[in-house]
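Hey team,

Filing this mostly as a record. A colleague (T.K.) asked me to run one chain through the structure pipeline before their review meeting, and I want the input and output archived in the tracker in case anyone asks later how it was produced. No errors, nothing strange. Just documentation.

Input sequence:
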Amino acid sequence: MDTTPAQSADTVERLPGAGIEPRATGVIDPALLHELCHAAGAVQVELVETEFGDALLAIATKHNFGLAPESEATVAQRAAFWRALQLPDLALAQGCALGRETAWQQFVARFRGPLLQAAIGITKSSGLGEELADALYSELYGLTMRDGVRWSPLSTYSGRGSLMGWLRAMLVQRHVNHYRKTHRETPLEDLDVASAPEVPQQNQQTMRGLEAAVQSALLRLSAEDRLLLVAYYLDRHTLMEIGNVLRVHEATVSRKLKRVTEHVRKELLRALQAQGLSRRAAEEALGIDPRQVDINLRKLLQTPPTDAFSNTKGQS
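Output structure:
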């Protein structure tokens, strides 16, 4: 099963549309290519035959048509290798990597539910599972810039196993990476998600007011400001990475972040004081342990991938 996701630009051969030309040489027989494109439903995800053909050639070169490195594939072996690929999955992944809107719509409709269930199974938590699935969607959509263009890990999927299996492996790897960053001293098998500190009864009203204020403030932000907060605070992209995507200097990104965060803080203070809290009490409420706030920040902040792509794809 093809379930090993990409880890770095140095170890992964990117497919067409990912900012680097494939190393494969030669051409696919036009009649065979037409057959493969038809079997893959390439036109349904806005792929033309030359784009899908480049992807097929790159995969064949990387895996030498499934043969030993020193072997040379015959015409029949080449055709058999390509026909054995998960062609519809491959076309869908390539369409998404190239930013085709129809492909993204199909991807979300097909995988959003199964990915969420898989993430919940991995994390053993509905809330953490939703965060893990949302984080993967953001990564697959592609904020990373490589060789001057937007890059999505979907461009590395080779079609040698199911796309769902590959996505599940991505979820597991991201979960393990997150665990290693936050629990370096504890064996993975001992993972046990800590519960939120108990909230004193007298603070329940303040907590509910804070939750309402946070949701109100974040939902009123523009799509660009919400995407900026997701990229920097939740997905941990650097100022330079975000600047490359938005085509602005990192200093501009820093100024925008400062403006947005200051605006959100002011809105929160104003909302809490409107609920009857003093200025001091409102500021203390903003210092509450974030685990006690019963909201999903990513869900509030994250702009839907298809909308975000429509707004920014022309800038890449």
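Quick notes for T.K.: The longest strand covers residues 144-146. The CA atoms of residues 268 and 274 lie 10 Å apart.
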